[in-house]
Amino acid sequence: MNAQSLLHALETVVGPAGIVCDPEQMASYLSDWRNAYRGAAALVVRPATTEQVAAVVQICHAHRVALVPQGGNTGLCGGSIPDDSGTQVVLSLTRMTRIREIDTANETITVEAGVLLQHLQEAAAAVDRLFPLSLGAQGSCTVGGNLATNAGGTAVLRYGNMRDLALGLEVVLPDGRIWNGLRGLRKDNTGYDLKHLFIGSEGSLGIITAAVLKLYPAVRSITTAWVALPDARSAVELIGSIRALCGDRLTGFELMSRQSVDFVLRHVGRCSDPFAEVHPWYVLIELSDTQPDAPLNDLLEAGLGAALERGWVLDAVLAGNEAQVAALWAMREGISEAQNHEGPSLKHDISVPVSRIPAFIERTDEALLERFPGVRIVAYGHVGDGNLHYNVSKPPGSDDDAFKAQQAAISEIIYAATAALDGSISAEHGIGQAKRDAARRYKDPLELELMRALKRTLDPEGLMNPGKVF
Amino acid sequence: MNAQSLLHALETVVGPAGIVCDPEQMASYLSDWRNAYRGAAALVVRPATTEQVAAVVQICHAHRVALVPQGGNTGLCGGSIPDDSGTQVVLSLTRMTRIREIDTANETITVEAGVLLQHLQEAAAAVDRLFPLSLGAQGSCTVGGNLATNAGGTAVLRYGNMRDLALGLEVVLPDGRIWNGLRGLRKDNTGYDLKHLFIGSEGSLGIITAAVLKLYPAVRSITTAWVALPDARSAVELIGSIRALCGDRLTGFELMSRQSVDFVLRHVGRCSDPFAEVHPWYVLIELSDTQPDAPLNDLLEAGLGAALERGWVLDAVLAGNEAQVAALWAMREGISEAQNHEGPSLKHDISVPVSRIPAFIERTDEALLERFPGVRIVAYGHVGDGNLHYNVSKPPGSDDDAFKAQQAAISEIIYAATAALDGSISAEHGIGQAKRDAARRYKDPLELELMRALKRTLDPEGLMNPGKVF
């Protein structure tokens, strides 16, 4: 490949504004926001339209140059960072920021890949609708990245993953052809469901350029509670009883260990413990309703009262105003930041069937503490999805590098426990580069074989985000 | 192939009870319940376990014999009927009727492919849960068929299609290997989503033998209303306003033209018009709630009252007791049967974006009546899914055969209107044999090309339900 001829060909398509090749300007595209992954690239190309993306992919295909699609670069597994060869081209979708259509009667919105999740949420709110995907990075992650990684977050319990929110896709295929699957249909049984193949494929099968997404009725009442529990088993009992009572009003159920809350109270200035006593576990519960003035407080109090009698709940408080709601969510959302103040930590994003969460926590805690005494286990997550962020901080005062050297052994214990309980080693973060090897070890070989066969079929040259997923 | 050696090999796997080769006994497997499609077969094999299915597929693969998977044989497109060569083997899943596991804490049920949908619903109800898929054939259709065709029905509005209710699958691949994807996980981002490829593939990529399905909280309050409307446009306005008000309480919204209701009143003995006046359109609305004594009547009356003022509603009545609820649903469910009494009818199962339903009806009615004066258009369906059953009955007193000869021209008008509005020519019934040619004409050629590439990858010998889908 001639780098100059490639640059020239791409510039003809996207114009000078669509090319980044100055090393300093390229830097932000070559490492993730946490600076955990770094790569090199021949250049960064920023097409502004689907047709430009198609032309770019055709040119790279003709030159046999590998492409790394990139959105907001907020992923946690290095999926949008090129390798260090310097031969790959980063294709940033961040100029494709159009909201193409809002169809309120169809309850859909059609957006381009580079639209920020938060802008999408705001566009929905402006027409009195809800776009429910909600996650920490929403101010900087893009819809394209959300689709490519099948993003999750705190509202999956009620509204599903990004996959469940998509009705149609527009995708540039590895040979540069455009598949226009932008249908806003809730029922379409005319063959294989191609969109689900591209969603969650982390850019390894094609480049998602736009999508038709579902909208939901605006929420008009919310109740939020902070609840203390004796153990994780009680959290599973509690969510079952609350869901039976409240049905779809249950839109949030976030579990946190005392260790998680301790770190937040220590390091996040604005947070204070809602209870005088220390408790082993907590959940943040959110009920919501499309009706204004829905009697959600009464409903939740009834549910918590019954759970208190059965011993599943030790104490509970309902937020009395918006400031209190914000304060409770700040506790939950502060965990990741707070943990950073305690030195290096090893992060895991696992899922198991909801019924097996207590067993997972008991077994894994015991195995870890036996082998690595003093480590601090920061377990929290989305109980209704069976999804735990099971992070491990070094023992207080211990050596950082010594702890990091144990990373593989610690993860091994966690992933083995996950696999033994029929779980997933990556619930919502994807594989990227970070979990490629773990996926190879813990995934069914037949499933990996099928995935590879699909990859070869759709991307026979292996030019779409090579080195990721597989 | 030697038919005797095949028979012998299969009998070794499934035993004499698992083989049907007597022509008389085979008959019910060789035509669908409406007797619209007929085929022939070398034999019918009825394995009782996944391992037996795998062994059967291996034997057929070795003999290069094509397989036609079959469930309850209630499909409307001939997808489970063999061709007339007499060389294909029908693989009936109806002996695989085990409910393998119910995990109430995980809100999941694991069932085999041959379980009847109604038995699945009953098993869910027995543990105080709802399995929401609901359709006319539920007493005889099987879960495997529901998955293979991505079945829809009346509850899709709230709970989604069968695809949306499945968390994991067990599939016997075309070479006889078993893919165990029976995971009960709500989040799993470790690669391509294989289950969505098999769901809706109509047995053309493998044989679904079991699935992990989602359960929902039991419903404890229901309100049902029968509402008269001036036009289809008002139905779209009405569903938008009711959904905004009621959110997920809205679990049914079925549109019916006066023509549909007329046929029911004429031919279904137990039905009578709830209103003294004749109106052009009707909807049946259902609200439901997990709470006992939820004030659904008040809510629906408020919504309908506001719609009455805006002219979207002409009249409305709420069912006062269970008998009235049943009577209203009998009107909706009687349409298909009633239409049979009016001579031959051409059935279509289309979808368009909800917002385009009025345009679809207006355009198509006009085009049809202009070209085929006197035909009776029986339009009804699931407005919230954009899904209309748009059927056409012959003009009264006209010749049956002359009408049937116009079938292609009538369908052409309907499918062209569907395509022009970015719709689907098969919303919930699938392709099977019935819509193969139409799919070839109305589907994006690139999408068909991708589908064929996937088919070749997973079933290179073309032994899985050949002649269907493509």
From TrEMBL, chains A, B:
GO terms for MF: catalytic activity; FAD binding
Keywords per UniProt: FAD, Flavoprotein
Stated name of the protein: FAD-binding oxidoreductase
Family membership noted in the UniProt record: Belongs to the FAD-binding oxidoreductase/transferase type 4 family.
Matching Gene3D superfamilies: 3.30.465.10, 3.30.70.2190, 3.30.70.2740, Uridine Diphospho-n-acetylenolpyruvylglucosamine Reductase, domain 2, Vanillyl-alcohol Oxidase, Chain A, domain 4
Flavoprotein keyword on record: yes
A biological process from GO: respiratory electron transport chain
Alphabetized InterPro entries for the sequence: FAD-bd_oxidored_4_C, FAD-bd_PCMH, FAD-bd_PCMH-like_sf, FAD-bd_PCMH_sub1, FAD-bd_PCMH_sub2, FAD-linked_Oxase-like_C, FAD-oxidored/transferase_4, Oxid_FAD_bind_N
Source lineage: Bacteria, Pseudomonadati, Pseudomonadota, Gammaproteobacteria, Pseudomonadales
Entry superkingdom: Bacteria
Transmembrane region(s): none
Domain annotation FAD-binding PCMH-type: ranges: 37-218
Cofactor(s) recorded in Swiss-Prot or TrEMBL: FAD
Cytoplasm recorded as keyword: no
